[in-house]
C-alpha cells in the first residue's frame, strides 16, 4: 500500500510539473507574439553585475532601439549599430570603430535583436514566483540551459502579466556571478529616422576603422 501511495505521489508531481511547463510555454509564446507585433521597440535599461566572492558590484545604464533584426545599442560608453549585415562598434574613448559581419542565423551569436525572444530554444522552463513590483504583477519563469557546457546555472525571466513585456532578467552563473537587466522604459512604434540603423563614416573623421573580416 505504501509503495502505491509513493507511486501516486510521484505521478502527481510529474503531472503538476507538466502543467506548470505548459503555463510557462504559453506565457513565453505570448511575449514572443507581442514583441513581433511591434514595428520597432525602444528600451532604456539598467544592468547590474554582482559577485560577492570577487567583491564585484557594478551598475550601468543603456538604451537600445530595435527594428526587425536591426538595432542601435548605447552601453558603457560605446555605440553598436547593426544594419542587417554588418556590426559597427564605435568606441569614442579609443576613437576606434570595429566593423564585422554577423551571422544572425547563428544561435550562438547573442545580439540585442534576440534578447526579447532568446528563450525560445535551448532551455527547460517552469513557472516561478509571482511578485508585486510597485503595483505591477511580475510573473517569473525559471529557465535552465540544456547545454551542460553553458556557464549559466539558471535565468529568472520577469514578465509583466498585464502588458506581456519583459520587466527584468536575472542570470546566475555557475561560479556565483549574478547579472540583472531591468527595463526602465519600454516604448513601441516610435518615429525613427530613415538612417537610424545606417553607419555614416563621415561622422567620425579622426577614428581608426578596424575591419575584422
Structure, explained:
- Residues 1-19 form the signal peptide.
- This is Outer membrane lipoprotein carrier protein LolA.
- InterPro entries: LolA/LolB/LppX (IPR029046), OM_lipoprot_carrier_LolA-like (IPR004564).
- Keywords: Lipoprotein, Signal.
- It comes from Flavobacterium magnesitis.
- The chain is of the alpha+beta class and 213 residues long.
- It contains one helix and twelve strands.
- The protein has one helix spanning 2-36, and strands at 41-51, 56-67, 70-75, 78-82, 86-91, 96-101, 123-133, 136-145, 152-160, 166-173, 178-188, 208-211.
- The protein has a twelve-stranded mixed beta sheet, with helices on one face.
- The chain is globular and about 50 Å long.
- The termini are far apart.
- Mean pLDDT is 84; it is low at 2-17.
Q: Which stretches are low in confidence, meaning pLDDT under 50 for 5 or more residues running?
A: 2-17
Fraction in helix: 10-25%
- Sheet with most strands: 12 strands, mixed
Beta-strand portion reads over 45%
Give the overall shape, derived from the CA principal axes: globular
Q: Mean pLDDT, as a whole number?
A: 84
Pfam family, one: LolA_2
Protein name: Outer membrane lipoprotein carrier protein LolA
InterPro entries: LolA/LolB/LppX, OM_lipoprot_carrier_LolA-like
Keywords: Lipoprotein, Signal
How are the SSEs ordered, and which strands pair?
Elements: H1 2-36, E1 41-51, E2 56-67, E3 70-75, E4 78-82, E5 86-91, E6 96-101, E7 123-133, E8 136-145, E9 152-160, E10 166-173, E11 178-188, E12 208-211
Parallel strand pairs: 6-12
Antiparallel strand pairs: 1-2, 1-11, 2-3, 3-4, 4-5, 5-6, 7-8, 8-9, 9-10, 10-11
